[in-house]
Amino acid sequence: QVQLVESGGGSVQAGGSLRLSCKASGLTYISYGTTWFRQVPGKEREGVAVIYHPSRLTFDAEPVRGRFTISQDTAKSTVYLQMDRLRPEDTAMYYCAVDSRISDSWYRPSAYQHWGQGTQVTVSS
Prior knowledge:
Elements: E1 3-7, E2 10-13, E3 18-25, E4 32-39, E5 46-53, E6 58-60, E7 68-73, E8 78-83, E9 92-99, E10 114-115, E11 119-124
Parallel strand pairs: 2-11
Antiparallel strand pairs: 1-3, 3-8, 4-5, 4-9, 5-6, 7-8, 9-10, 9-11
């Protein structure tokens, strides 16, 4: 069974950096996508960035473009989200999700079967 465990969240001041990790176990897909989402209370879950395996092709959402970088260490079964120049509006619970059938709908939460428990990111001004 697939398990995803996020880590690396915390509290930082605006302009700071954090690196989130999503460690996967139990994955048997030949090809799949791993996506970071974020959610604040009262709002819909928002797709942040995706990396496809094995192509390593990536896409990201406009609000984080140029500040966040998604990457993968296949040997460690871990996907990272490097977040630089953080802003207060980046404050959210961050989740990673995996599925083999997301195609070009990577930003839709409904496309994912497997989710982690989330890690909180808080950015103060």
